[in-house]
């Protein structure tokens, strides 16, 4: 890596990716799309009514919204393992392995991740990186016993030599629960001393945690579960929680993270079509906030472009020049 890379990281530029699993942009059809009935005052106030319909790019003084292709030139429905790997590597992983694959990575996806991700590229030049979503002890026990496999995101973090966040990190405010509030850790996992946040406060806290790292990632997987399970009304309520968390995150980011680029994106559609319980081929929303967001937004067309703009912002060398596809 060049000296300019280390210099830039030292100057305090940082990037945070807020990843929301299974959130696409779809038609304003109240019979199937929970976005229609959901009360989402923050994102609606930011981008206008029916912002979730993929009619084109939207931009404000502080943020940009880009409908982003998750299909990557392949037929079939995008899947989590390959979509997440594409976000973190900047490579067309479905094309490389010949299919959309998921939910957990197979050997072919694991090999692509092992060749390098944003986590690894930042740590390789001495930068600080973290996955800010914590995991309970039962998760680690299942991984160790072989009963559970890493999904693409924690696999990418561990391949880069990073330790995953634990209940102890959540307890001491070093991580944010995937459900935002932390209530699930108390109700279902037995961690009775986990602090409780409102979704808005969780978003604020996440924005402040990200300042401690050159690159950080937060994985909100319950949005995909809300697409696969439950009713239309339940999915709408989930989107309302998501709107509150994103409101706290974006507002605090724009107020306090002057040198930071915030990227909000997804791996595939799902929750926006509750007429079935499968993934969709719809574009996903990518939201940018921070310095130069509009110019960076112009470079985003599909999931592989996310890593490209992270590398540009942090002045990391593009690994696609080093690895043969």
Structure description:
A hairpin with a 3-residue loop joins β2 and β3. It is built from 16 helices and nine strands. The N terminus and C terminus are likely disordered. A seven-stranded mixed sheet has the order 2-3-9-8-1-7-4, sandwiched between helices. The protein has a two-stranded parallel ribbon with strand order 5-6. It has 325 residues and is an alpha/beta fold. α4 runs parallel beside α16, α6 runs parallel beside α9 and α12 crosses α14.
Quick structural summary:
The protein has 325 residues and is of the alpha/beta class. It contains 16 helices and 9 strands.
The CATH H-level superfamily is: Alkaline Phosphatase, subunit A
Identify the strand order in the major beta sheet: 2-3-9-8-1-7-4
Number of helices: 16
Give the H and E element order: HEHHEEHHHHEEHHEHHHEHHEEHH
Q: How far is it from the N-terminal to the C-terminal residue, by CA?
A: 21 Å
Total domains: 1
The rough form would be described as globular
Main sheet specs = 7 strands, mixed
Give the overall average pLDDT.
94
Q: Using the 3D structure, state the CATH architecture.
A: 3-Layer(aba) Sandwich
Low-confidence stretches: 1-5, 319-325
Q: What percent of the residues sit in helical stretches (DSSP H or I)? A: 40-55%
Number of distinct beta strands: 9
Strand content: 5-15%
Which CATH class applies here? Answer: Alpha Beta
Q: Radius of gyration over alpha carbons?
A: 18 Å
Structural class: alpha/beta
At CATH level 3, the topology is: Alkaline Phosphatase, subunit A
